[in-house]
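Quarterly update, task 2.4: zinc ion-bound model.
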Amino acid sequence: MQKHCKCGSSMSIRLRTVIYQNKVEIENVPIFSCDSCQRSEVFAEVKPELTGIIGQLGSLPEKQQLSFHHISEIACLMKRVTEKQYASAPVEKIVEDRINELLDLLLLAQSLKDEPWIADVRKRLEQVAKHSVSVNDLA
Ligand SMILES: [Zn+2]
């Protein structure tokens, strides 16, 4: 997946660590960056989740490290696409495996009648369904 920078060069997407307020490290955030002018921008589709985290942290956050791939399903899928163990697997297979994992979690959450957990897993399934097209573009 490629995107053009304002300077005319192409931008590539990578998972990078974002530092918020010099205190919070958010690792594995999908970011587009330009090799020519170093401009970078957050992948538009993960912005709602990223701004959600930053909103929760507030203006005086404690020093901490967060893993964006545990919060955003698209970051989770991107991380897998770039992992060695999945190097030869087609993206469809990676997405399918993740959906199966989430469905197993959903069954477990439902059997425990854990409503917040059920809602969380449902939200993740929606993210995967909505974003699997853009993850495909990465391959
Ligand atoms: Zn540029």
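Highlight for this quarter: Residues 5, 7, 9, 34, 36-37, 39 surround zinc ion (CB under 6 Å).
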